[in-house]
Structures are given as C-alpha cells and as structure tokens.
Amino acid sequence: MHVSVKNKFESYPEEVAVLLHNIRDLIYSVAEQEGILDLTETLKWGEPSYTSKIGSTVRFDWKAKYPNQYCVYFNCKTSLVATFKTLYADIFEFDGNRAIILTIGQTVPQPLAHCIAMSLRYKKIKHLDLLGA
C-alpha cells in the first residue's frame, strides 16, 4: 500500500477503515479479473485513488460531515455515473454525476464491481452504448 494511502486509512475510524479496505480489495480484485496489471494507487484530493492506463480514476472516501455514509467517486466528465444510473438506479444512491453513495452497515451491492470494471476500462469502452454493459 502506498504510504500516503496507508496514512489516510489510519485516519479513519476503525469500522470505516474496514469498509474502505473492502472497497480497496474489490478494486484490486476487479483489476485482476480484467487483466489490468498497471493499477496505480495514490491520493488524489486527499482520497485513496486508483487508475489504470486504459481507464478512468476510481476514488473513495468517508467524510466526518456525513458519518453514516461513504462514497465511491468517478470522473464527472465521463459517462460513467450516467451509465450506472441507467443500469442500477434501483440499487444505488448517487451524488450527481460523480459518486455512488454507500451506507455504513449496508452490504456492498454486487453491481459495484461492474461499475469499477467499467471505470478501470473506460478508455477502451467509452465509445460503446452503455459502455458495453
């Protein structure tokens, strides 16, 4: 784990850190399943951030201002969140065109893996209807 990301995880309340480690693990698992070997981990805007050469950045964070939720962020200048809304409006809550909102205590819905996969492959699929979903 990148040192800056490790420090960020240490700043979270313990129960939140566990949830966010699970999101991190999911991102790495999806990258492996998709054959993405160049995943880069860093902090962007103070949030754990993951990107590949063929994709768009995936970030996540928890904010003390909203203690019962955490978010997975996607590039708002892409069609990613609009596509997620079309596919999964009945499953996820969204923050505009930039994030999926998850609730503390909620089981992470399986479609999040699909959303992450689309983001990590975005440059290869952005020309496809519904990103090839």
Concise summary:
InterPro entries: YdhG-like. The chain has 133 residues and is of the alpha+beta class. The protein has helices at 3-11, 14-33, 80-88, 111-120, 122-125, and strands at 40-44, 47-51, 58-62, 69-74, 93-95, 99-103.
Explain what you see:
This protein has 133 residues and is an alpha+beta fold. Helix content is 39%, strand content 22%. It has helices at residues 3-11, 14-33, 80-88, 111-120, 122-125; strands spanning 40-44, 47-51, 58-62, 69-74, 93-95, 99-103. Helix 2 (14-33) crosses helix 4. The longest helix has 20 residues, at 14-33. The mean pLDDT is 93.
* Strand order across the largest sheet: 1-2-3-4-6-5
Strand content: 15-25%
Structural class: alpha+beta
The CATH C-level name is Alpha Beta
Please give the domain count: 1
- Categorize the overall geometry: globular
Q: Based on the coordinates given, report the CATH architecture.
A: Alpha-Beta Complex
Largest sheet: 6 strands, antiparallel
What's the helical proportion of residues?
25-40%
Number of helices: 5
Poorly predicted runs of 5 or more residues: none
Instruction: Sketch the topology as an H/E string, one letter per element.
Output: HHEEEEHEEHH
Organism: Psychromonas marina
InterPro entries: YdhG-like
Pfam families: DUF1801 (PF08818)
Protein name: YdhG-like domain-containing protein
